Amino acid sequence: MSIRKIIDWAIQETEWQKIGNIASPFYYYYDYAGHWVWACDVDLGNEEVLRCVPVAANNREIIYAEQGRAVTLSRLGNGKWVITGLAKSLKSTVHFIYLSFSDDMYQINRKVLRGYVIRPLTYGELGELIAPYGYGTLPYGVQGKFRADGTFLEIVEWY
User: Would you tell me which CATH number, out of the four given (2.30.42.10, 3.50.50.60, 2.40.50.140, 3.30.870.10), belongs to the domain 3-86?
Assistant: First the structure.
């Protein structure tokens, strides 16, 4: 098999499968086929979060996964995404360790954690948001996107 065929195969596979992070608690959702299914919101690391992504019928144990856990998504024939399993890696955070080498010695210069985490906002964080957000406008449990260092980026989920 040529390298070109391997690359084409890898590109084709990525079109039908993705890895994302659970961005909301699981809930019942009335799908397009008229059935109640388990679903949640999934963050793929892009600008938008996929809403109401159903769990595949044979993977009911996924509904016990906690928020922020990595999951695999597969595209169905109709173009819709479905959660098919738990992923082995979480691609939203990366830990970089910068080293310097001299002779047989190495030294850690700095450690950096990059990426983001989605979690519910605390009471204190709700109180610090500027208008029109904050207490009274946003309910407790609203989801926020934070950098790995804890800096608030945006509100992800608001019911």
Answer: 2.40.50.140
Tokens representing 17 are 């499968």
Q: Are 38 and 55 in contact (CB under 8 A)?
A: yes
User: Helix, strand, coil proportions of the chain in percent (round to 5)?
Assistant: 15, 50, 35
Distance CA 13, CA 15 (A): 5
**Tens-digit pLDDT profile for residues 93-147:** 677 888 888 877 888 888 887 777 777 888 778 777 766 666 667 777 787 888 8
For the chain, the residue count is 159
Torsion angle of C-alpha atoms 44, 49, 51, 54, degrees rounded to 10: 10
